[in-house]
Amino acid sequence: MSVWQVMAAHVSLVPSWSAASSSRLSPYHAAACLKTKDVQSTLRRNYYCKRASPRHSSPDEPRPASTSSSSGKTENEKPLKRSIENAKERTKAVREKVRSSLTNLTPRENIYNLPNFLTVSRLIAAPVTAYFLVHDHYKWALGLFAYAGFTDLVDGWLARKWKLQTVAGSVIDPMADKALMIILTVTLAIKGALPAYLATLILGRDASLAIAAIYYRYASLPAPKTMGRYWDFSLPSAEVHPTTVSKYNTFLQLVLIGSALALPVVTAGGEYAGLLHGLGLTDAALNSSMHYYQWLVAATTAWSGLSYAYLKDAVTIIGTDEALKAKQGARGRAIIGVTFGSMVAVATWLAFTVDEERKQEQKEQSEIQRPQ
């Protein structure tokens, strides 16, 4: 067959190919088209088998991996996936960079130094002293209390001399003092060594300052405000400056607690009682002096608590927004004024009711026990 005949046969088959392309070829016809030998059937075989191979292949024959359309779709999806992955990587890198920069911007300080260790030891000594006091080991309680007072003086001196002053130390130091004062005040009040009104004033002042400190810490803590960062004292947010009257009041309270611990020791007999009696100090004189001294401590405690409510420089909030700092300071002072003012009212009521009744009962018992 000549070339021209082949071309004519090819042209004559075009309509039939178009019709066949829209229909489905059965497996029998697909197998039969492979057995043709003439040129015209060969052309038909090549066309039909190529059209039928994607859909009408035998179940035993493996299907092709992908068609031209699916391969084009896959090729179009690859750049999109690659761009999405690149965007995720860039976002992650930017996030890590911002996080590291925020961490570097937040100031930290070294809190592991000798003054802070002494302060923490004083904090631990408070419950141990109360344990000795409850079990009437007054000498041990008095000795541990003396250690706490000594460390209170030494840690501040060391911090100033060696330039180890930290914001964490300015927070932990009054915390240790207040823990010692609160625990021993409660213990002595339960044992009857301190009147109820004085214990209410001391505890009310410390409670109002503690509530204000919680607010100051949360309000001034740099973002993010998390529980871990809240208790991380290496992240300074606010600094407390004890007022002048507060310093004197702290000293007077320590002397009061020490006197209450020492009074059972010196009045229990022995060499200490003989020494005091030799100086002309009787038990009645010691008790009377203790009574007036308690009123002095009550007055300074009330003055000290109210000073934190009206002095603006008692607490310094760390930050750059002056308007926000002023608003936070006003709220903190208002918290102190409301809470401590209510405690003063309760203490006044106790002083003129409960304590007076208790004194009258003690006076009647002493008259009954007096020998005729």
TrEMBL record:
Biased composition (Basic and acidic residues): 74-92
Transmembrane stretches, start-end: 140-159, 171-190, 251-272, 292-311, 332-352
Compartments reported by the entry: Membrane
Keywords annotated in UniProt: Lipid biosynthesis, Lipid metabolism, Membrane, Phospholipid biosynthesis, Phospholipid metabolism, Transferase, Transmembrane, Transmembrane helix
Annotated Gene3D superfamilies: 1.20.120.1760
Entries under InterPro entries matching the protein: CDP-alcohol_PTase-I, CDP-OH_P_trans, CDP-OH_PTrfase_TM_dom, CDP_ALCOHOL_P_TRANSF_CS
PROSITE patterns, sorted: CDP_ALCOHOL_P_TRANSF
Main localization, broad class: membrane
Topological category with respect to the lipid bilayer: Multi-pass membrane protein
Stretches the record annotates as Disordered: 50-92
GO biological process: cardiolipin biosynthetic process
GO cellular component terms, semicolon-separated: membrane; mitochondrion
UniProt-recorded Gene Ontology molecular function terms: cardiolipin synthase (CMP-forming)
Homology family: Belongs to the CDP-alcohol phosphatidyltransferase class-I family.
Name of the molecule in the record: Uncharacterized protein
